[in-house]
Amino acid sequence: MRSSSLKSKRCTCCLGCMIGSCPLIAVLLVGVSVSLLLLFPMVLRQQVEERVVIQEGSATFQQLLSPSVPVFKDIFFFNLSNPVEFEQGAKPQLVEIGPYSYRETREKTLLSISQDGSLLTYNQTRLFHFNQETTGEGLSERDTICTVNIPLVAAVAQLEQEDQGALISAIGPRIINNIFDDTNARLFTCLPPTQLAFEYTDELLQELSSNFALSIAGQNIPTPFVSINGNNTAGNSLPSVVQTGVGDLEAIGQYVQWQGNNGRLDVWPNEMGANDINGTEGLVFGPFLEPGDDLEIFLDDAVRSVQLVYTETVDDDGIEAYRYRIINSTFESAFTNPANARWGSWCPDGMFFLGPTQEPVVPIFGSKPHFLDGDPMLREKVDGLQPNREEHDSFIDVEPLTGANVMLNVQLQINVQVNQTDNFEQLENIDGTLYLPVLYISQRTVLTQQFVDFLLDNGLSAAYILPTVVRVLAGILIAGAVLSLVIALLACCCLCGARRSKNTSKIQSPPTLVLADVLRPRAPPEVELVDERGAELDEERQESWVSGSFNSGSFASSVEEGVYNADKN
């Protein structure tokens, strides 16, 4: 009996301990899991901040000075297949030929780092090397491409500006026509692709640059060459300054000075921010990007800043990246978007002015390849254009945690404005005004394992692996907390059931131990029998009294006193 009672008490005690401790364990486990989920992003952010800041000796520093991401400049030419007929007034027939591929190397020479480490100054050399392996099949540097004669168009456009004086307007056309006749200048020219893409000179250019009469009139072309893309810029490179991220991580890679221009250019004649230098060179951005964040880059080829907008999330060889595209308003005419008047974009929709980037100012306009998203009139003036968004729209893919550019394909088409004029026989048959595509440049990067390793070493591996580990661990802890609560609930149910059973037993079952004691026969107590005088009765009289007392029931009421007077019976 005692053993059973002891076990019952111990069981009740254990259940009570479970009920009291399990909820505390559950709260503790939930607290630990929540702490993991809250603290991990903070720890990860701190680790990334320490690694992406551009500091001398760091991996990011080396990437800035000598990027491990291969950069290619693929050039597609619009070969003018009917140059003679075009000069006679026929619609130009264009045939895309390319790509002619050039591997770009960007070598930065460190000049200085500011005392607080927030600014880095360097000179940059950009070199382009023809790459036969990535060039289109059957194409080589020995090919010949025919296109519009840019120096001829530039000389005419400069002469026919509205602000020319009466003397220049009178004698200028005669001087220019004499130069055209002496050099047998035509409206078209045919050159090897590398010369046409980067830099070339010819007899017309040299004469336009050195002619004494033009110099006196201020109408000479200042340089004897055309340079659509600068190559080997080491000789004329001026210092550029970028922010390292120290003190302002979001500004990492942002230009403070570009090619000697301290915060502002002297290229664009209009104000309203056209000459502001904003953005990065496009290879690095601030970390911790969100899908709604916009970016800004400075385009060397266009000598201006452009805004990038987020469009989608993509997967680049297993790396999640945010895809950005150039905002469409960049290509809107100043007639449509007055804000673009600061860049002189008085042209049809789909282009922006690039004239001031050349010397002299040439009527050159940038656009998307094949006039994608441009005014249909632009394509109606020529034959051979077939815009395709998948092929001809620019994009930049940025890894959002580190802000590193993992892949880009920035495309820019160069178009020359050709106007009909009666002052020069080469242009008198042109049908009004047209914008003739010369070429388009596709600047692209290739994601390499070396660069992937760089990203993984600078926090990307932790960003990809640890969140899963933390979520799994937090899930296990929360599952443990739920299990603890279930155990506590079951213990509570068991304890309540035990107590209910005990109370029911007390009410319905008689105390068996007491009843047994009552029913068990007991020996009558010993009593002393005496007569009235107090003398003890003899055996005969005692037997006679006892027999009579039991029969009459009087003994039962007197045995408790232990003495009975026999005479009373």
Please specify the SSE layout and strand pairing.
Blueprint: H1 2-52, H2 59-65, E1 71-80, H3 83-87, E2 94-113, E3 119-130, E4 145-148, H4 150-159, H5 166-182, E5 188-191, H6 193-197, H7 203-210, H8 212-217, E6 240-243, E7 255-258, E8 261-262, E9 295-299, E10 304-316, E11 319-326, E12 351-353, E13 364-367, H9 376-380, H10 389-392, E14 395-398, E15 405-419, E16 433-445, H11 449-508, H12 512-519, E17 528-530, H13 539-552, E18 563-565
Parallel strand pairs: 17-18
Antiparallel strand pairs: 1-2, 1-16, 2-3, 3-6, 4-5, 6-7, 7-8, 9-10, 10-11, 11-14, 12-13, 13-15, 14-15, 15-16
Low-confidence runs of at least 5 consecutive residues? 512-516, 550-569
Q: Whole-Å distance between the termini? A: 48 Å
Counting DSSP E segments of at least 2 residues, the number of strands comes to 18
The number of helices is 13
Total count of domains: 3
| Backbone shape | elongated
Structure commentary:
With 569 residues, the chain is α+β, with helices and mostly antiparallel strands. It has three domains: 1-68 and 449-522; 69-326 and 373-447, no CATH class; 524-568, no CATH class. It is 35% helix and 23% strand. It contains 13 helices and 18 strands. It has helices at 2-52, 59-65, 83-87, 150-159, 166-182, 193-197, 203-210, 212-217, 376-380, 389-392, 449-508, 512-519, 539-552, and strands at residues 71-80, 94-113, 119-130, 145-148, 188-191, 240-243, 255-258, 261-262, 295-299, 304-316, 319-326, 351-353, 364-367, 395-398, 405-419, 433-445, 528-530, 563-565. The strands form three sheets. Strands 1, 2, 3, 6, 7, 8, 9, 10, 11, 12, 13, 14, 15 and 16 form a 14-stranded antiparallel β-sheet that branches. The chain has a two-stranded antiparallel ribbon with strand order 4-5. A hairpin with a 4-residue loop joins strand 9 (295-299) and strand 10 (304-316).
